[in-house]
Amino acid sequence: MSAASTSQYNSVETRPSASLYSKSQQQITENLDSNTSITTVTSPSPAVADCTQKQSPITIFATTFLTIFLAEIGDKTQLSTLLMSAESHSPWVVFVGSAAALITTSLLGVLLGSWIASRLSPKTVEKAAGVMLLLISLMLFWDVIS
């Protein structure tokens, strides 16, 4: 190894930016021919990765709208609204009443969701929601077979 390349590696050891990397990211080896220590600095990884990427409001709106819209097609709420509209012969009044009810229940869901999210981690919320959905599925299955 030439003297120029040895001095280049030694300058890496003394640079202050090299001290910013953790010891696990620095690999120190010895050059057996010249007894000079050489520091190899691997590419740094961020100390804290931003796991929650910000999404645009239109993306959040579209995802929410499509998810709720597809989940509610043929739902008992939609069927109840259909029956009330047919019986009352006042479709606009039924529409306004059902829309107000759905907005109110959605508001309660959002407020409860933000309150829970401020107190629990997202992983805990996901696990709890999964367990609750599993329990509801088992109760519905039990109702069908009995």
Automatic annotation (TrEMBL):
How is this protein situated with respect to the membrane? Multi-pass membrane protein
* Keyword Membrane part of the UniProt annotation: yes
Which is an annotated GO molecular function term of this record?
A: metal ion transmembrane transporter activity
Which InterPro entries has this protein been placed in? GDT1-like
Top-rank lineage group of the source organism: Bacteria
| Recorded GO CC terms | membrane
Question: Where does the record place it?
Answer: Membrane
Keyword annotations for this protein, in alphabetical order, are: Membrane, Transmembrane, Transmembrane helix
Q: Any transmembrane segments, and where?
A: 92-116, 128-145
The family this protein is said to belong to: Belongs to the GDT1 family.
Full protein name: GDT1 family protein
Origin organism of this chain? Fischerella thermalis JSC-11
Highest classification ranks of the organism? Bacteria, Bacillati, Cyanobacteriota, Cyanophyceae, Nostocales
